[in-house]
Design goal:
By secondary structure, this protein is of the alpha/beta class. The chain is built from five helices and five strands, in the order αββααβαββα. Helix content is 40%, strand content 21%.
């Protein structure tokens, strides 16, 4: 298993926590070097905060853990393509690498033509099928098709 798949599996574990809590199943992990410095999952319902996306929580926790406002040496692994807000946070943190699993054709940053930092390297599709499966389960549940 390559390192991107390894860390994405940890992000998927976070997404499963979100699913268990009734949240949209998105998980995120921030890695600096070979060390996980932060991980989080969506908590918008729990915190009554529309900005409590997995990426926002993980980026904030990583900056706090590192005592830095820039994450140019870090990689964010996230199970769903970041939205415009989260891509903006990645931009301002000067994130080194962004790796995501599933694309979001409705709210994803790439589909909305929202740039991340020009130096941020992007890889998509890592463990895409597993992420999409969690999203299908969530939306089947809320639509009553469980």
């Amino acid at each position: 298993m390559d390192s991107d798949a390894f860390y994405m599996e940890i992000a998927l574990q976070e997404a499963r926590k979100a699913l268990e809590e009734g949240e949209i199943p998105v998980g995120a992990v921030v890695v600096c070097g070979d060390k996980i410095v932060a991980k989080a999952h969506n908590q918008t319902e729990r915190l009554h905060d529309s900005t409590a996306h997995a990426e926002m929580l993980a980026l904030t926790a990583a900056m706090n853990a590192l005592g830095a406002k820039y994450l140019s040496e870090c990689t964010l692994y996230v199970t769903l393509e970041p939205c415009h807000m989260c891509a903006g946070a990645a931009y301002w943190s000067k994130l080194g690498n962004l790796v995501y699993a599933a694309e979001d054709d409705q709210r994803g940053f790439a589909h909305l033509h929202c740039p991340v930092h020009p130096k941020t390297r992007i890889r998509k599709g890592v463990l895409r099928e597993q992420s999409e499966a969690l999203l299908r389960i969530f939306f089947q549940r809320i639509r009553g098709n469980d």
